[in-house]
Amino acid sequence: MPAGGVIGCGRCLPPQVVSNEELARALESSADALATTTGITRRHYAEAGVGPSDLAREAAEAALRRADRVAADVDLIVFATMTPDIPFPGSGCFLQHKLGCRTVGALDVRAQCAGFLFALVTADRFVRAGAAELVLVAGAEVHSSALDFSPPGAGVTPRFGDGAGVILLGARPEPGVLAAVLHSDPTGFERFWCEYPSSRHYPVRMELEPFQTGRHFYVLDAESLHAQAEQALVATAAEVLEGAGVGAGDVALALVHYVDPRVAHRAGRAAGFGSSRVVATAEGGGHIAAAGLPIALTDAVEAGRVGAGDLVCCLAFGAGLSWGGAVLRL
Amino acid sequence: MICNARILGLGHFLPDHVVTNADLARVMDTSDEWIQQRTGIRQRRHITADAGPADLALPAAREALRAAGIAAADLDLIVLGTLSPDVDFPSSASLLQRHLGIRGMPVMDVRNQCSGFLYMLATADKFIRTGAARHVLIVGAETHSTGLDFSTAGREVAVIFGDGAGAAVLGPEANPGRGILTTHLHSEGRFAEKLCVEVPNSRDHPRVTADMFGHPGARLFPQMEGRYVFKHAVTRFTEVIHEALAATGHQPADLDLLIPHQANLRISQLVAMGLELPEDKVFNNIERYGNTTAASIPIALHEAVEAGRVHPGALVCLAAFGAGFTWGAALMRW
Lengths: 330, 334
Hints:
The complex is a heterodimer of chains A (330) and B (334).
Chain A: E1 3-12, E2 16-19, H1 20-26, H2 31-38, E3 42-45, H3 52-67, E4 76-80, H4 91-99, E5 105-110, H5 115-128, E6 134-141, E7 163-172, E8 177-184, E9 192-193, H6 208-212, E10 219-220, H7 222-244, E11 253-257, H8 261-270, E12 278-280, H9 282-285, H10 292-302, E13 311-318, E14 322-329
Parallel strand pairs in A: 4-5, 4-6, 11-12, 11-13
Antiparallel strand pairs in A: 1-7, 2-3, 6-7, 8-14, 9-10, 13-14
Chain B: E1 4-13, E2 18-20, H1 21-27, H2 32-39, E3 43-45, H3 53-68, E4 77-81, H4 92-99, E5 107-110, H5 116-129, E6 136-142, H6 155-158, E7 164-173, E8 179-187, E9 195-196, E10 223-224, H7 226-247, E11 257-260, H8 265-274, H9 286-289, H10 296-306, E12 315-322, E13 326-333
Parallel strand pairs in B: 4-5, 4-6, 11-12
Antiparallel strand pairs in B: 1-7, 2-3, 6-7, 8-13, 9-10, 12-13
């Protein structure tokens, strides 16, 4: 029975880099205070007119080049994002067109910060079922256009960045996703959510009042999430390692995806990976919800930190609340 | 390891409030005759108080779980399809998970518009077939009415859509001749703007601005090039049904029932005619509910089953086409 293996990956970070100094004025804070609150010092922002499917296109082209494949080889697109190009249709449709893929399925998945893992697991299932031989799994976000660049945003806005990452999952005789676990628990999801536009509001899903009171901006009570996130990431690591039948010591690199890189590092260490083998995805360019993991994987591959045959453990925790883990053999 | 997936239970829910064509003609320049002639729709349902897709999904999901004999807590995966999510994030599936009072199992939304139910069905099928899940709940649910322009400027689109939800619980089926036999998914993004909502748009900085809402013709409302969509729908529906039949060695004449996504009665009629399917082999209910997008197929399938139109052993085809463009088909042996 075939199973999905990582045959290529790619990433795209938009060229504009924004420092804490640049954010501090509008947020009426200081660069140091923003760094202390969020653990993040820089992020990339897409320019106006650029959507997640544009970033995903560049990431996908890089992944296809690395895998020596072309867009026409792709059998299925699975696109994870929480900041779609437009409300509908899904960003996967835009990517299908921009890449010049055949009229293959373009599944758009929403599972927020754990979205890439949900998409990856779904893609692997299509491959294992024999329904696709090459799946393009994309995670892409343009958070910057949704952020509050006024003082109430100081605790949230600096945490997020824009970017895209793609993994090409191809049919191989030996599985590349050795084990994966996904979880969701809606308890207290309002600690990390964005309410508007909101179809459930009768008679109109978006009105002036919620807009004027800023209810279309992200709410993130990070302090209330950290302990739960750390615990879930550690438990998920144990669960997925056991599922893969490997120990933490066998893993070449752990990619830990959480909005606060300091918490991600702590969780990675507590899971037994050792600090030199833990990457906190948010460290380099802020939290990029559905894209942090494939970006970090691509960085690690490009830097030669991991290569063919290595085990990589991916962990993610975020809004929903949804979290999960996967052990990949490259 | 590979087994089939089968629908174990179905449910659906529609808000009580019926909106007739005459009701719409009172607020916009349209008429019962115009709407019926072009779409076949006589009435649709609208919510009358706060209720999102997850709220509509809850009774549908409970009914499907009851019919399947599965407790909500025993679900391995929940997938909700919508283009009118309850909130910006998290997914409406997260809200449904809360409404069901359960936690632990993964939940996600699928955003594939009118083809959403087929994308979810294909996804659930692959999880079950490969042993990654035993019991999967898939729900299509839409609250369209809070995002439509009920002035004359919005009449081409607003008359078509209705609110509602339909759910299916899927599980493994040992008999390889029974259950979901094949699924086929497609997309063609070069026509994305032919049927879409443009804003809020992450390409615009800032994404949400005051001029987006509160007035007729606002960009917040869906836009559709109706004739263009219609033409492609007839072609793609027919094509993908043939594709599903060919994949399993069947002919159109082998079909016992076709349940097309309820986009427009005229589309369904042309597709049936092209496949030479008699009227009693095609199930339509758009005249009562309008286009409920991701919810239309499970609502129609459930009604067809309740009406005794789907006998054990029947060969049933589900097919959809819509915004994206996306389209797809699935073939099931009931």
